[in-house]
Amino acid sequence: MEMEGGEGRVVLITGASSGIGAATARLLARQGMRVVLTARRQDRLEALAQEIEREGGAALAIPADLGDPSAREALVDQVEARWGPVEVLINNAGFGYYATVEDTPWEVVRRMFEVNILAMIHLTQRVVPGMRRLGRGHIVNIASVAGYISTPPLTVYSATKFAVVGFSEGLRRELEPHGIHVTVISPGPVRTEFGRAASGLEVDPGEVPGGLAPEAIARAIARALRRPVPEIVIPARYIPAIWINRVLPRLVDWGTARQGRAWLRHLEEARRSGSRSAA
């Protein structure tokens, strides 16, 4: 079903200070939506909000640490007090950590699940009542191809993205009778700050040549808001790999294990090189 234009719709975007979130905010604001930007980095949020407003859009910057349940509750309260119910929720915030399961600090595991999964579920719980009162809404959850094919050294991150996919599927079936759409977007590698944050290095040692620009994901989100679909895998060339992983997992095991070992060696070399440069 084709949806009408987004003029005036209230859109809450998490992880909006950079990458996919920032690109999506710019695009949806140009389409007439009122965008609420949230992330931890207040300076970036405010700069983005000012940029959008200079171009004639409407933006509201609300810094929040989504790992904190009370901050999530306060976030939705502030949006509703200012602009009314959230009509579109884009759960984009998330992070990864390059390491084996054994070498991933427990605090990192705990926070990754808090930000990547629990924040998504909690914000969904907070905005759905308003959507039901309106009789419409759209929740877009950003997963990953890693939510279908788990590859070391991102095993824990992949687990969170598998959860995003499963949650989105069930949520779609719950909310569809109420006129609320749910879409899960599963990108392949994207040129963002993800790798630098996950590795702790100034330069992303795992950047994949040909990785997508964040704007490509933003356009996919905008298409889903105009014409709701359950799922988008982007680029589509990953769809055969997902199916092969389902029917011939042992074949994929060999390739991903080999790739993971090589990647960990590459990461360790990059970290040693970075340490030498700093010295």
Automatic annotation (TrEMBL):
UniProt xrefs under InterPro entries: KR_dom, NAD(P)-bd_dom_sf, Sc_DH/Rdtase_CS, SDR_fam
Keywords in alphabetical order: Oxidoreductase
One GO CC annotation: membrane
Domain of life: Bacteria
Domain Ketoreductase: 9-193
PROSITE patterns (alphabetical): ADH_SHORT
A matching Pfam family: adh_short
Gene Ontology MF terms: oxidoreductase activity, acting on the CH-OH group of donors, NAD or NADP as acceptor
Record-stated family: Belongs to the short-chain dehydrogenases/reductases (SDR) family.
Name of this chain's protein: Short chain dehydrogenase
Organism: Thermoflexus hugenholtzii JAD2
Taxon lineage: Bacteria, Bacillati, Chloroflexota, Thermoflexia, Thermoflexales
